[in-house]
Amino acid sequence: MLTLEWESEGLQTVGIVVIIFASLKLLHLLGLIDFSEDTVEDEMEMATVRHRPEALELLEAQSKFTKKELQILYRGFKNECPSGVVNEDTFKEIYSQFFPQGDSTTYAHFLFNAFDTDHNGSVSFEDFVMGLSILLRGTVQEKLNWAFNLYDINKDGYITKEEMLDIMKAIYDMMGKCTYPVLKEDAPRQHVETFFQKMDKNKDGVVTIDEFIESCQK
């Protein structure tokens, strides 16, 4: 249940919090977040899927996961996604289950695009592992870089008021009726204005990655 904190000046952080919260829910549904201590077979049976992930050694070097963790992650990923990739419709279906009181379609679309780093319309095991590595074990700056990429919808290196408003509306739509007190219709736009007053240091109407990180770290 959301509280009056939604009306505070700190709302600009809500987007980042919801990113992590919703992503953890996604992992839970896919069975990827419960790292058990049970023995895992060394072989990952990659031949059973159509999409073959990169060598474990490479993923281990690039991510913050151990080889055993990657094996467990891949086993869960393979069980839920036999094709080896997740498409946007699957993302939307997952989020709709965890936010039935609202409409998570738009937010799931934005989040999917953040995970789909090569913009080919699907999220591979490698894409998911790298995003997960940042969200769960990345440094503060890495997480903020990832969040900036989510907010920067058109990927031009700047966050505009329109982009931030789209994200805020998507978050409110996803949370639906579970907010208390009930938010005013113009609340998202008001919070965007607050966001830009704090982060747009040179008042040029856009927020750069440096402005975003500096403001969030403060």
TrEMBL record:
TM segments?
12-33
Location in the cell:
Cell membrane; Cytoplasm; Peroxisome
Do you know which PROSITE patterns this protein is assigned to?
EF_HAND_1 (PS00018), EF_HAND_2 (PS50222)
Question: Gene3D superfamilies, alphabetically?
Answer: EF-hand (1.10.238.10)
Q: Which GO terms describe its biological process?
A: regulation of potassium ion transmembrane transport
Q: Which UniProt keywords apply?
A: Calcium, Cell membrane, Cytoplasm, Ion channel, Ion transport, Membrane, Metal-binding, Peroxisome, Phosphoprotein, Potassium, Potassium channel, Potassium transport, Repeat, Transmembrane, Transmembrane helix, Transport, Voltage-gated channel
Q: Which residues form the EF-hand domain?
A: 103-138, 139-174, 187-218
What is the designated name of this protein? Kv channel-interacting protein 4
